[in-house]
Specification:
The chain has about 200 residues and is an alpha/beta fold. It has one domain (about 5-204). The chain is about 50% helix and about 20% strand. The chain is built from 8 helices and 8 strands. The strands form 2 sheets. A 5-stranded mixed beta sheet has the order 2-5-6-7-8, with helices on both faces. Strands 1-4-3 form a 3-stranded mixed beta sheet. Strand 3 and strand 4 form a beta hairpin. Helix 1 (about 10-15) runs antiparallel to helix 2 (about 20-30). It is globular, with a radius of gyration of 17 Å. It starts with a strand and ends with a helix. The relative contact order is 0.17.
């Protein structure tokens, strides 16, 4: 099979599941092979966060809460409460345009698109991933996202530090001792590729 492209969200979902749930992740990847995945319900929130960092003010995120549909308004509101505590950590940052980098192994290419690419006047740079979902992130999810951001940094923003934001719980996590290693990620990518082959063959 030709090299498959997957999103960070899909690959990390694969890493943090086991058994039949893994098959479900891969089957969805095959089902949407030639179609766009369903839109991220938090996309407007991420855009508001970028504006918030530019202004060093949580107001744009609260405006997004007000403008959101009834179905998502409560979720946006919980995120806004956490973001109000987080945004001062990015004071002075310049928000760069969103961009996608990649990490490749074993016929799998993972597209890595941080929610924020930030540069500071003192030369620091950060790649920020925002976890907006209600469920608490699995420690492996945090480690895998930080690892992928670091691997793709040359494509995204050289010498940038990866940052994971668990926004509802107002947690900002930078580099830390990790259970994720290159051999392990390559082995997981190989397993993903093998399952992708099997599903693609059965769907043909």
């Amino acid at each position: 099979m030709a090299k498959g492209k997957v999103s960070t969200r899909t690959f990390v979902a694969y890493l943090t599941t086991a058994g039949p749930k893994r098959l479900s992740v891969v089957s969805k990847q095959v089902a949407y092979k030639d179609k766009p995945f369903p839109g991220d319900p938090y996309a407007r929130l991420y855009s508001a966060m970028a504006s918030s960092v530019r202004l060093n003010d949580p107001a744009p995120v609260w405006a997004a809460v007000t403008n959101e549909s009834t179905r998502m308004r409560a979720s946006y509101g919980e995120c806004a409460e956490g973001w109000e505590q987080i945004v001062p950590a990015f004071h002075g940052a310049v928000v760069e345009r969103r961009h996608t980098g990649v990490w490749s192994a074993r016929r799998i290419t993972v597209n890595v698109t941080p929610h924020l690419r930030l540069s500071y006047p003192d030369g620091r740079r950060e790649l920020v991933w925002v976890h907006a979902r209600a469920e608490k992130p699995d420690p492996l999810e945090i480690d895998a996202v930080l690892w992928l951001l670091e691997q793709a940094a040359d494509d995204l923003l050289q010498n940038a530090e990866p940052v994971f934001v668990d926004v509802r719980r107002a947690r900002l996590i930078r580099r830390r001792p990790s259970q994720v290693t290159t051999p392990w990620m390559e082995a997981e990518a190989a397993g993903f590729a093998e399952l992708l082959d099997q599903f693609a063959t059965s769907a043909a």
